[in-house]
Amino acid sequence: MAFSTTVFQRKYIKRKAPRGFLKRVFKRQKPHLRLETSSDLLVHLNCLLFVHRLAEESRMNAFENKYGIIKKEHVQAAAKITKLSTNFKLGTTNLGTFGLHLKKLTFRSYYKTRFCELLVSHFLREVD
Amino acid sequence: MKKPRLRRVDTFVQVHSQVKVPPKPGYNHRNTLLAPLSSRVRTATPVRPCGSLARVDLNAAAGRRRLRLPQRLGGGWLRRWRSATIATASLRRARSCGACWILRIRIPRGDAGVLELGMAGSCPSVAQKALLETPSSRRLSTPTKMNVRRGSHRARSIGRLAHVHTSGNLEEQTPRTLLKNIILTAPESSIMTPKSVVKPVPTPQVVRSSRQESSRGSLELQLPELEPPTTLALGLLAPGRRKQRLRLSVFQQEMDQGLPLSQAEPRGNASASSLTSSLSLTFASPLQTQSVQRPGLARRPPTRRAVDVGAFLQDLRDTSLALASPGDSLRTPVATLPTDTVLEDTQPFSQPLVGHSPSVYHSLPFLSHTEAENSERAVSRRTQSSGSRLQNHNPGKPAQLLAGKAKKIDVLAVSLPNNSSAISGEDGVEPLQDGVGEEAEERMEESLSVSEVMGSTGTQGSVRTEKSKGHGEMTEALEAKEPEGSSEDEDISGRTASPELASSTTEFLQARRPQFLEPAPPPSTTVLSSEPLEPLPTRHHPRARTHGPRPRQDPHKTGLSHYVKLFSFYAKMPMEKKALEMVEKCLDKYFQHLCDDLEVFSAHAGRKTVRPEDLELLMRRQGLVNDQVSLHVLVERHLPLEYRQLLIPCAFSGNSVFPAQ
Question: Which residues does the annotated region (Disordered) include (chain B) (predicted)?
Fold first, then answer.
């Protein structure tokens, strides 16, 4: 009901999100998972921001080397930097997450460590 | 309940058809209208709604039975025509015609005949009214009403009606009327029998033709007869073309029979198919008409295929002609050779190669002179390859090599074609002829590795080399080299023979060749196998090609290109194509990482569905979302309004929030 009350001034969206494409990609990668409707758009937003950052970085690289055209090397360097900054792959920063958990559970773990180290690890696993 | 009207009305009309009517197939209303005048009176049970004309015949039959009159009378065609006219008239304007009012009238027995007369008289008028629908006819119908009642002026009225309606009928020629006329004038059996399957097929064609012609009913009979042959001819072309396409495989298989046979086959088949399939014509002719009316809708593939075959045949003929003239200048055989060789490349069979062989032989000496030119190289390679291919097919008859070119051609014709061997032959010939070192190596390697010819050919090649040595003739030596180079798989003898041959023909070949040939033997087969594939795909590309990975990659790339375009937009600078490809790769990796992260997050939450909360967490981890910058802010900034409404919950009237939280 709320949705129908709104009336768009234009009948087409200028920059549509390729929702079908995104869903297909996700299904190919993780067929056992499902992607929700709204999250589809947020994925698109994430992609936009990533591409934005990548473009900015590559542009800066090209400017630094005083090139009028963005070259492959600029893009490569930019990609490296962007990927590092985005902290992809939880595995790279797993320690950080565990650390957070440890901080939360220091009080409990303190008591647990009194008795056994394994119990602490077990507890951590439960939390995860 | 509605039974087929034709039958019903037929019986009805039969009541009235006791009159004498001229059995002319002409569409003459006057006569037919006048006919019912003399019909006898029958009782007619009143017909309540005019739409139920179908019941008229029942009433007529009832009346007949009452009066104990004979049931059916003779005179088939007119009855049928009448019934058909009435049927069609009733079908069309059962309710709208004013004449129907006449039927409703309850008339006492005395005027029963008049009533029926009026009906009969009005029905043709109805039939014509259906065509015209003029107020004049309606006006006339009312006088007919009056006449019916009076029963005195019926002749006049009917005559007037006939006058008007005949003229009107003649003016308007709709497909429906034409078809109706055809049906009426056609013999009874043809319509009623189950053989109508054949009839309806030509009748639509006939209708179409009549429509085009827009001729009168009497003439239409002749025209449809003429039209089907033309449509047949048209239809023939389409299946003929299709058959021609199919014939390619047959044609290739029967290459030994000769070109003229293959040419005659498709034509013969096309003609044969016309007789057999009448139904297929209906499918063919609509296509033709469509293409004629709307050229944009015409299908392309058939024309493409037909051209291929025709062009191919023509080229073959040209090559044969070119072969026939050996005394041409240096350039002409060379010039023709590229086209020929292109054809040859596509043709795995020996038949065309046989024709090419003399030209190749001629070209070889010419080519040897022009080896220095780079432009000639490709041609020479091709020609040599063709020549080598020809020679490849001559494994078991080395004696003929010595005999002469003409004999060689015969031998080649006999030999079986072999794609791989041919290709390897090409490759083998190329290094021998050309001075390019690396290419020569590769080609030689190809010829050695790819060729699947029998191992005996190697020995034969060696024999040939010896013989060629003995003769020392340029062409023979070249020929011997070619087969030996091409047919050998990994025979050392062949390899040794080739350098020997090269040495023997140093007049024409460069000294580098033996050097290149020697290191050729220990190659990497993979490298070689890849190279012969290069010419192969290019040749077989016009033919059926498996499109396996193509549809899978295309939508993925088109989706990625969306983001690549955004990248180029955000960069605000011109970009290289390589850079764009790099961006694509980055995006691929990015998507993989994204999916993995989302999986972890959703699993952490104990879910199997990725929700917006997971996405928010991801962006938070990426550093895009802080305490200062929230997700909603980003959504507002970067996404269009429509998506923002879907994502950010907003309060609406009636204490409702969308999207629901």
Answer: 194-225, 371-399, 419-558
- pLDDT of B241-252, one tens digit each? 545 555 555 656
pLDDT in tens, B446-501: 444 444 444 444 444 444 444 444 444 444 444 444 444 444 444 444 444 444 44
Q: What is the ipTM of this complex?
A: 0.71
Query: Would the pTM of this model clear 0.90, i.e. be above it?
Result: no
Separation between Cα atoms, residue B591 and residue B585, nearest integer Å? 10
User: Taking Cα atoms as reference points, which of A67, A72, A13 lies closest to residue A44?
Assistant: A13
Residue B591 to residue B523: CA distance in whole angstroms: 41
Distance in angstroms (rounded) separating the CA atoms of residues B575 and A63 = 13
Cis ω on the peptide bond leading into residue B659 (within 30° of 0)?
A: yes
Which pLDDT band holds residue B231 (cuts at 50, 70, 90)?
very low
Task: Please name the member of B592, B647, B652 whose beta carbon is closest to the beta carbon of A42.
Answer: B647
pLDDT band of residue B301 (cuts 50, 70, 90) is low
**Interface probe with B: pick from A52, A61, A90, A128, most Cβ of B within 10 Å:** A90
Q: How far is CA B552 from the centre of its chain?
A: 26
The encoded tokens of residue B187 equal: 């013999």
pLDDT in tens, B45-58: 554 555 555 566 66
Q: B637 CB near a chain A CB, below 8 Å?
A: no
CB–CB of A55 and B600 under 8 A? no
Give the residues across from A35 on adjacent strands. B610
Residues near B216 by Cβ (< 8 Å), separated by ≥ 6?
A: B27, B170, B173
Cα atoms in the 13 Å half-sphere on the side-chain side of B53: 35
Burial label, B614 (beta-carbon count in 10 A; 0-12, 13-18, 19+): buried
Yes or no, beta carbons of B600 and A90 under 8 Å apart = yes
* DSSP state letters, A13-26: -SS---HHHHHHHH
Q: Report pLDDT digits (tens) over B85-133.
A: 554 545 455 444 444 444 444 444 544 444 444 444 444 444 444 444 4
Asked if A52 reaches chain B (Cβ–Cβ under 8 Å), the answer is yes
E strand or H helix at A103: helix A94-104
Cross-chain Cβ contact A13/B640 below 8 Å: yes
